[in-house]
């Protein structure tokens, strides 16, 4: 149970919108009042692990940010099944159905990114993951935000805009060595694309 409170405190309390806090508090109260609490926690953890396969871990606190989270997770599990069968249109439909209960619920958008990846639309998946990262950062969940940017970059390693986001992230977090690593890669990328002027400016920074 500590995961619920630790992840909420770390990722949401300090920067979450007031409404998100109220939604979480109400959903958490209902969750904790169930008689089979431990079984529900185990089941929820398993469902989130299944949904996040191939991406990055999701917290239990995240799951509780929508009152109808169980309906959403049902749709996302069905979407994952459709994706495994390459029924991408049906998989996307299930995601849109889930949005009816929580349009800003991040696991929905992670599932959409996975569908785009499976369908070969890496540019679309990259854009989706960057948007997810931006949302995490807006909610002060820096760990998950960075993970989303990292995954976006793994799909599009030559995307200068995504790498620049990560450079800014690491600089803001004081991780200067990691920021420098990305600066050097960014400079090399510009050289490979024969953009010598951009490369020179990047190295000079």
What can you see in these coordinates?
This protein has helices spanning 2-13, 18-32, 37-51, 60-63, 69-84, 88-99, 106-118, 122-138, 142-155, 160-172, 176-192, 196-204. By secondary structure, it is an all-alpha fold. The model is unreliable at 1-5 (pLDDT under 50).
Q: Structural class of the secondary elements?
A: mainly alpha
Whole-Å distance between the termini? 46 Å
Order of helices and strands: HHHHHHHHHHHH
The major sheet is characterized as: none
Q: Roughly what percent helix?
A: over 70%
| Tally of helical runs | 12
Q: Give the beta-strand count.
A: 0
Mean pLDDT: 83
In the predicted model, the low-confidence regions spanning at least 5 consecutive residues are 1-5
Strand content: under 5%
Radius of gyration: 19 Å
Global morphology: globular
What's a quick, concise take on this entry?
The chain is an all-alpha fold. Helix content is 77%, strand content 0%.
């Amino acid at each position: 149970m500590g995961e619920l409170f630790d992840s909420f405190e770390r990722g949401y309390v300090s920067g979450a919108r007031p409404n998100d806090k109220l939604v979480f508090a109400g959903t958490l109260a209902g969750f904790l009042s169930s008689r089979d609490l431990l079984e529900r926690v185990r089941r929820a953890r398993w469902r989130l692990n299944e949904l996040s396969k191939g991406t990055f871990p999701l917290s239990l606190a995240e799951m509780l940010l929508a009152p109808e989270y169980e309906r959403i997770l049902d749709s996302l599990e069905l979407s994952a099944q459709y994706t495994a069968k390459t029924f991408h249109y049906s998989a996307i439909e299930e995601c849109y159905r889930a949005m009816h209960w929580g349009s800003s619920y991040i696991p929905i958008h992670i599932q959409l990114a996975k569908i785009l990846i499976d369908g070969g639309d890496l540019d679309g998946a990259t854009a989706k993951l960057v948007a997810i990262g931006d949302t995490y950062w807006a909610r002060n969940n820096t760990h998950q935000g960075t993970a989303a940017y990292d995954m976006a970059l793994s799909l599009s390693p030559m995307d200068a805009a995504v790498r620049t986001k990560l450079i800014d992230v690491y600089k803001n977090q004081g991780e200067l060595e990691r920021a420098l690593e990305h600066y050097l890669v960014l400079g090399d990328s510009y050289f490979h694309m024969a953009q010598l002027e951009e490369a020179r400016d990047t190295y000079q920074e």
